[in-house]
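Onboarding guide, step 5: your first structure request.
Type a short instruction followed by the sequence, for example:

Predict the 3D structure of this protein.
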Amino acid sequence: MNTLSFISQAEGTILLKGEMTFSTVKAALGESVHHFDGDGDLRIDMRGVRRTDSAGLSLLIEWMRRLRGEQREIEFVNFPRQFEGLARVSGADEILAASMQ
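The system replies with structure tokens like these:
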């Protein structure tokens, strides 16, 4: 079964491991509530993401919306090339640009 795991790293950093696809994002959204709880900014390390689709891109945008609504920042590091292409084609690259490293 395809999964996406959240692995806590250093203070405020979460490593994603697995797939960000239609089959995993619903569970990942629910799981993220536990990992994003708190009041500090977050760094999401995406080096462990093997595969993604447009649902994964939507999940990133939802995380941004949620944290910014709480006056928190989110930064995505080690952004997979596959995401860059999806973001560019969908026009979401401008939305994500400020959060990508």
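Each response can be followed by summary notes, for example: The chain has a mean pLDDT of 86.
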